[in-house]
Write a structure and sequence with these properties.
Elements lengths: L1 H27 L2 E3 L5 H4 L17 E4 L2 E6 L6 E3 L13 E3 L4 E4 L12 E3 L4 E4 L13 E3 L4 E5 L12 E3 L4 E5 H5 L7 E3 L4 E4 L16 E3 L4 E4 L15 E3 L4 E2 L14 E3 L23 E3 L6 E2 L11 E3 L4 E4 L10 E3 L4 E5 L12 E3 L4 E4 L13 E3 L4 E4 L13 E3 L4 E4 L13 E3 L4 E4 L22 E3 L4 E2 L17 E3 L18 E3 L7 H5 L3 H55 L8 H4 L12 H5 L43 E2 L31 E4 L8 H5 L2 E8 L2 E7 L5 E7 L7 H12 L9 E6 L6 E6 L6 H6 L11 H21 L26
Parallel strand pairs: 3-5, 4-6, 5-7, 6-8, 7-9, 8-10, 9-11, 10-12, 11-13, 12-14, 13-15, 14-16, 15-17, 16-18, 17-19, 19-20, 20-22, 21-23, 22-24, 23-25, 24-26, 25-27, 26-28, 27-29, 28-30, 29-31, 30-32, 31-33, 32-34, 33-35, 36-37
Antiparallel strand pairs: 1-4, 2-3, 38-40, 39-43, 40-41, 41-42, 42-44, 43-44
Main location: membrane
Family: Belongs to the polygalacturonase-inhibiting protein family.
Pfam families: LRR_1 (PF00560), LRRNT_2 (PF08263), PK_Tyr_Ser-Thr (PF07714)
Length: about 850
Amino acid sequence: MQAICLTMLFLVVIAFGQSDIEALLELKKGFVSDPSRQVLVSWNSKSLDSNGCPRNWYGIACNGGRVTSVTVNDVGLAGEFRFSAITGLSMLSNLSISNNQLTGTISKIDSLQSLQNLDLSCNLFHGSIPPGLVKLKKLAQLNLSSNQFDGNVPDGFGKLQQLKYLDLGGNDLSGDIMHLLSQIGSVVHVDLSSNRFSGSLDLGLGSPSFISTIRYLNISHNHLVGEPFAHDGMPYFDSLEVFDASDNQLAGTVPSFNFVFSLRILRLGNNQLGGSLPEALLQESSMILSELDLSLNQLEGPIGSITSANLKKLNLSSNKLSGSLPAQVGRCAIIDLSNNMLSGSLSRVQSWGNYVEVIRLSSNSLSGSLPNQTSQFLRLTSLEISKNSLVGSLPPVLGTYPELKVIDLSFNQLNGILLPSLFTSTKLANLNLAGNNFSGSIPFQEIGNITSIDSVEDLSLMSLDLSNNSLSGYLPLGISFNVSFNNFSGVVPEHLRRFPNSAFHPGNNLLIFPHSQSSPRDVTNRTPREARSHMKSVIKIALIAGLVGGTAVICLLCILIYSRTHWQEHKRSSSKEDDAKIGFPEGSSAISHRSGPNKNVDPSLSSLAFDQDIFTSSQLGYGNDVGETSSVVKKHKDVGHLESVKKGEGISPPMSLLSSSNPSPSKKQLPDNPGVLNVSSPEKLAGDLHLFDGSFLVTAEELSRAPAEVVGKSCHGTLYKAALDSGNVLAVKWLREGIVKGRKEFAREVKKLGNIKHPNLVSLQGYYWGPKEHEKLIISNYFNAQSLAVYLHEMGPRKLPPLSLSERLRVAVDVARCLSYLHNDKPAPNTNSNRDCRTSSECSCPWLQPS
């Protein structure tokens, strides 16, 4: 009998194990891409152990024949994650799939009653948070951040007694902040940042115990208003260590936080707080506050002495603080008092002690001279005191600070000569002395006396700005800098001629820019009379060459215009004859023929030349930063036929998206009318390709070998038209270096933009994040349609029949609907949506019926 029971138990365990395996295999069917090849390859029914548990399945843990953990983080997995497929995993305690490209809803998650940790962060999940989530009684950690969840947070979080960690940041959630916080019982870490929560922080009206255990509370980047803690709700925060309510619309005065003895970090920047600065936050007390950020507010009054021994970071920039500098700063390492109304002598910094590492006092009204004490600032790394009224010369001690990397003393009234020690420092990387009264020459000759440095490139100095001074002498060798508004003379060294003219002019009228291949040494040995004679000869030659070249260009343009006009007239007459032959009435509009495939388009024009006015960098929303709107105003969903680029038709071979390491080709590489470029063979995309729509299938390898045309350029990057193997045509924006900041912030903003859906907007399809700085792409559908400007303003051969009054009205209404949607219904994050609203940025197809 006992043997029979054991056998039955064994069979039950195997049956449950098989059920778990089938659930995971069913879940696998929704995955469409696995760049790491770890999940799709290892998850197969043949890799099972004797207990029926998955063997060597990536990210899967099993106990007693039952799946207990699924951990698939940071592998770029794309597709739909169907929670309905895993409802039978009753023993699953951990589900962590963060930083992928998974989509779907979480409507059936309440069946996972054993779940203790749920991490869906940094994906593409959407919809509302289901009420069934609060039924998971064992849930201890919940992270839904950086997705596309919207709506209100369901009631009932107070029932989750085991919940310690809650992160809902980076979504589109809304509702009253007080209503949500009042439900939280034993949560320790709460992050509700970057959402659309509203209301005030009137926590004193809530239950006396509802937030007593919170240690970390981040409610920044929301829509909170009112005076924080107006009814003295601070005693309920007796365990709070980090409080961040920056980037809201909070008003009133700054609370003193007298009863929060454990508070270490307080961030209330970028609000509308006024009044004076609470002295309790700066003085020695029982508080252990180490970071205080009250920047970008409206604080007034003086700054008292800072006596706190715990405060390390102080940011009071961009307020209305007045008076003199504080006499003491305690043990502060970073002090930012820039952009205020501080006055008085700079000499007070001499008593700030030796703990200071960063001093930012720019944009005030400080006077006096720089201190000259060797015992101070031994840890100083950055000294920024620009736009004040400092006088005197640079103290010799300034070049002896061992850790100093940044000096910005621009736009003061400093004078004297430049310190040679500043140009031989092995740590100084950024030196800005522009807008002063320095005279003499630049002491680069001191570099030649350093035996341990072979060349200027071995020094740390990377940025030098000496513009708007009274410097003289010859230009130095081996360093890049701005020397405009000075009186330099002589020949510009060859390695400096690659810099723009703005680096030398205005000013420096005696500088010589030779165009010959003769060495600078030969030119510099000339006498002043020979130099002037040579300059006159160069000017004469340049004038003659310019006149001849200009005349030739004008003649060539006239010939081209005449030829093109004559050819267009001949073509138009031929088209009319052909139309008459095949039954078209002689007066029919050419537009009606363009609504279908462009079979009658001028064969001498490539598809790009036909549409180059439509797709500029701004027209797909990519002309601005990533945080700006990702859509273009369009009239209809069907915007015409997509013309494909074919080899052997008078166009040079197509350019791959990774053919060049420079995403913004120079003017020598790109013609005035953008066309297809002939460059070297492509490399493979080695980064992460993130797609917002699971039904839109394209791999990084396919994108890397896709032929591409340059259809627009801007200061933010280059726009390409890429033709995939499948026949689909994409618009790919390649962002130049420096536009994109952190990966997480970039991914969050682009995902929000990709979630924008509207009949008059072209939505983003995805983005690509590469391992190199310039490998950042934004992907959208490509639409081949004439811009509105062609109908309204075009005067050349492409001029189309004018729009009727009803058509103009319909276009205006659609544009207004789009702008209203962007501003009011679905505002794009951190953007001014109508920043580039032009007729050349809008596609219009009035000959089609609206969809």
